Amino acid sequence: GARGSALLMGDLEAPQEVALAAAPGSIASDVLVVPHHGSRSSSSPALVEAVAPRTVVYPVGYLNPFHHPHPAVLARWAEAGASAWRTDAGGAIRIDAQETGLTVSPFREVRSRYWQGR
After folding, report:
1. How far is it, in rounded angstroms, from Cα 1 to Cα 36?
2. In the beta sheet, which residues pair with residue 33?
3. How many CA atoms does the CB half-sphere of 46 hold within 13 Å?
4. Sequence-separated contacts (24+) of 98-101 with Cβ below 8 Å
5. What CA–CA distance (Å, rounded) separates 24 from 19?
6. pTM to 2 decimal places
7. Chain segment 51-72, per-residue pLDDT in tens
8. How far apart are CA 99 and CA 106, in angstroms?
């Protein structure tokens, strides 16, 4: 929309990301929900360059057995300059499109519970 864009990738892996990045049309977006929970088999350099988001969201579960996101994926998006938000740390991540731009806030900061140290 006029106030920003988001790309939700689902469980795409590197080969499909490369094909998407090479397809006609731009996939550049302000916000990206990182593909495949930030697994090692996703977030290819081609995707990072094509999307160039300001913000990435890692949809990962608390203490997930796969240890997502992978450190190489975290590093790749950080090197691209994207701010990172994780659902295992912040709960649901809210992204609001304001006239002044996008704002991001983790649900646990907005509605903290007494057992979350507050």
Report:
1. 25
2. 8, 57
3. 13
4. 98/3, 99/3, 101/3, 101/4
5. 10
6. 0.88
7. 999 999 999 998 889 889 999 9
8. 20
Nearest alpha carbon to residue 69 among 55, 86, 82: 86
Contact indicator for 99, 1 with CB cutoff of 8 Å = no
How far is 95 from 22, CA to CA, in rounded Å? 28
The tokens for 90 are 């912040």
User: Which pair of structure tokens corresponds to residue 77?
Assistant: 């998006």
Q: Around Cβ 29, how many Cβ atoms within 10 Å?
A: 20
Report how far Cα 31 is from the mean position of its chain's Cα atoms.
7
Confidence of residue 46 (pLDDT cuts 50, 70, 90): very high
Write out the two tokens for 85: 């938000």
